[in-house]
Amino acid sequence: MSYLFSDELPFFVKGDLELMLEKNSIRMAPAICYESMQPEHIEAAISKGAQVYLSSVAKSASGVERAFRYYPEIAKRYEIFVLMSNCLGPCDDFESVGHSAVWNRNGEMLAELNQDEGILILDTDNSTVAEYPMLNVQRSRVS
């Protein structure tokens, strides 16, 4: 985490190195909310050979709209898969609206969970996504 927004400071510590995950020769760059929207962060990930960009976010409806314009551009420009995992429900002083999604290397959306809880699993070999929505999940509020 190199780029932190003020509301992230109580929960994260700015790092000096960019983390890169690798599994089966696929290089993945994780990013949290604010930094995933910073061009410098994706450029650093690309320079380290990232093939997949993993963005974990907490976004309201307006934040998701912005992300849905930005992430497809990034996917297409850098020919990289982009996965956005958004939480669902109360977050600080706003409501996070879900809509986790995956874009292919051409910037085309492969899958979206809308406002459902669930899991999206990307197969990078054939650019397909398996969707596993969590139906009938009882939610409880944590105070």
Describe the protein in words.
Helices cover 22% and strands 34% of the residues. It has three helices and ten strands, in the order ββααβαβββββββ. The protein has helices at residues 33-36, 39-47, 61-78; strands at residues 21-23, 26-32, 52-57, 81-86, 88-91, 94-97, 101-103, 109-112, 118-123, 128-133. The strands form three sheets. A six-stranded mixed β-sheet has the order 1-2-3-4-7-8. The model has no long low-confidence stretch (mean pLDDT 87).
List keywords for this structure.
143 residues; globular; two-stranded antiparallel sheet; Nitrilase/N-carbamoyl-D-aminoacid amidohydrolase; 6-stranded mixed sheet; alpha+beta; 3 helices; 10 strands; single chain
CATH superfamily: Carbon-nitrogen hydrolase
The top-level CATH class is: Alpha Beta
Largest sheet: 6 strands, mixed
Number of helices: 3
Tell me the CATH topology: Nitrilase/N-carbamoyl-D-aminoacid amidohydrolase
Query: Could you give the order of strands across the largest sheet?
Result: 1-2-3-4-7-8
Question: Which geometry do the CA atoms define?
Answer: globular
Mean pLDDT: 87
- The CATH architecture is 4-Layer Sandwich
Task: Summarize the helices and strands and which ones pair or pack.
Blueprint: E1 21-23, E2 26-32, H1 33-36, H2 39-47, E3 52-57, H3 61-78, E4 81-86, E5 88-91, E6 94-97, E7 101-103, E8 109-112, E9 118-123, E10 128-133
Parallel strand pairs: 2-3, 3-4
Antiparallel strand pairs: 1-2, 4-7, 5-6, 7-8, 9-10
